[in-house]
Amino acid sequence: MPGTTYPTGPADVAGVRELARAGRLAGSASAAPARDLARLRGAVYTVTWPLVFARITKPLELQRRHPDCLRGLEWMRPDCLDGFHDDVEAVVEHALRRATDPIENLEGWLATRLNPATVDAHRKRRGEIGALQRPRLPGWLGDALGRDPWLGELAVQILLWAGVPATAGGELWPLAGWAARRAEVTGEPATHDMRDTLDREVRTVLAAMRTRPKWYTAHVERPLGHKRAPVAPMPAENSAELSPLELVRPHEVEDARLTALAEQALRAIEARLGRGQDPATAVTAVVRVVFGAGALEALPHSGSPRDDWLATALADEARLGRIVATVLALLAR
Q1: Taking the CB of the first residue and of the last residue of the chain, which one, N or C, has fewer CB atoms within 10 A?
Q2: How many angstroms separate the CA atoms of 41 and 157, rounded?
């Protein structure tokens, strides 16, 4: 059965490399008995998984801000680990079907196939549960949303999310990720009440989608029903004696939060500059909102010294100039 492998060793991997060099990897896989095919698959898996982890999984987990998942397979969260294995399986199956020409450098060839193999498998999995394989904004839905650019983008994000097996923790929608996307599309920095704003906007989009009940049921409701429900932890009988397991230290959480704020600020500044706004005005306005006291209250080590530094820096023309120059350099402007 697909995905079944047997333990492999250096000899198996060397054999796969030889078959690839001879242009016989796909042919051997198609003609191999079940047990031999499983060994072939296991050997290709051994070569493939480090590439997938380095080139697909780590960038994705960095985007998700999962520092634990970045450490290695044994630390990955269950949903993320499932996604990693799905991606590796997709590349392995792709190789066993498509490796028909002589391949001198197997890793190099696999690296060029990572994106098409995983994208095709992703679309296939979406199609199997009724989710749109290539979500686009239907004309009728765009009209129902008043052709609002952000609401149209949010509708596409909802259609994309419906076909993703992962959950947003204990919530249905990944509002934190969408907040960053909203700032990117609208040019408006996220504020402390952005979650409430997004919640209202999601309800607006869903209401528009439900005006076509059959379409909504097929492409939103049914795919959402395939998501794996998050498992709530069992309460400890004597929780007062237990301390939580901290996978990430407080200063690492703070660094990740500050990095996220910096990325959000850069996107907002770039949007303002794209509209022709003066660089100093754009930087000052965005930095005040993104790194103002309200935004830093959630940080575990935030306090008055950082707030005082920010106010002082923005009031000092020379220091503001250096901040603007640094931002422009980061944006390659």
Answers
A1: N
A2: 35
